[in-house]
Structures are given as structure tokens and as C-alpha cells.
Write a structure and sequence with these properties.
By secondary structure, the chain is an alpha/beta fold. The protein contains eight helices and six strands. It has a six-stranded mixed beta sheet, sandwiched between helices. The chain is globular.
Length: about 240
Amino acid sequence: MPATPQPATPQPATPQYDDATALRRVERDVVACARCPRLVASRREAALHPPPRFAGEEYWARPVPGFGDPEARLYVLGLATSAHGGNRTGRAFTGNPTADWLGAALHRAGFANRPVSAHRGDGYRLDGAWLASAVRCPPPGNRPTAAERDACLPYFDAELRALPTVSVVLTLGAFAWDAACRQAGAHPRPAFAHGACFTRPDGRVQLASYHPSRQNTATGRLTRPMLDHILSRARTLTAPPP
């Protein structure tokens, strides 16, 4: 029997960030976070025992903050930081197969300047988009708990507050959809489905896609045309009014 996960520390009230350095302050708080003992242990374990292809690399091994354009109109929310992607590189959706799929799709949609997000300092830039995960550390087996999700929600909320131009929240997978619904205070909570869409209480549009995980893309559950269509909808929804 696997050990019972340790519960996350109860989350504090969402901090207020209301000045020009808001995003930097959110980033500082995310990187310093140690609320969830299971996740702290998981991110360190991944760094200590990397797969052979990453042997000898220095891992970030800290919570991964959001990344992108400070004037973003699109916020893309994923499931959790990848143990050997973001946890290694220190940047959201960077350096793993999911990042390859999403990065290429964002480039095709005009949200990124190049199709590959490989590592920090690679020149990859987002235009009009912001990327983050609902859980900022890598959970064992890529399965975060509800308590870990709730411990991270204040960071998602704080980033949205610091990104007032965001008009669309695109969630990748049911877990991210549920996290975004909880952050928005949506009642009743709309059901997740690929292509689902509703207007949140804060006036933003929430849009859903299947997660571009290797399992989903290898089996055809999510295809390139499907993801391109979702991002095309997001591009249309984020277009400023004439």
C-alpha cells in the first residue's frame, strides 16, 4: 500500500499585488513556497535521480512560476509542473514532450515567436499569452491531490490579478478546468469537455482543451487540428473590440 500523502498546509488568503512590480512579487512568492511536504520531496527526488538523458544537468527543483507576456490576453493553465520539464528548466511548459506540443501550437497560432520551448535563455517569447500550471511542483505520478491544488490556487489568483488584460483562461485538462472554476467561484460548476466554454463570474471567458500529454497525443485523443482549433478560438476571443 502506498503511503498516505501528507496534507498541504491550509492556504492563506490570496496576497494583494497592486503595483508595477506585481508579477515579480508573485514570482518571488511562488519560488519560495514550501507549503506541501509531499511536493517538496518530489521535486528534490526528481533532481537527485534524473533519467540518463538529463544526467549531470542542474535542476531548478523549486516551484515554477508563470511565464509569458505581462500584457497577455490569454492565460493557459495546465495540470502540474513536469518532473523533468519545468522542474528541470525552471520555466513553465519547457523541455518535455507536452511543452513541444503546446509550444508548436502556440507558435502556429501566433502566440509564440518560435515553435520550441527548450530551456530558459533560449529566446522563446510569448506574445499575448501567459503559461502556468495549477500545481507549481511535480507531484508523484503526475497526480496532485485536491489539497495541493488548493494550496496553489492563491498563486493562480494572484497572477490573474496582476494580469488585468487577460480576457480568456484556457485550461488544459479536467484538473486545470476544475481549479480555474474553483478560483472563479463558478456555481454551479460547468462540466469539463474538450471545447467547453463559459463566461466566468469575473467576466473572463474560460475555455477547455484536452491536455497535450503524451498519452493523449499518442492515442489521438488530442490531435494537432483539435488543439489548433481551440487556440484559434482563443485568438478570436482575445481580439480587442473594434
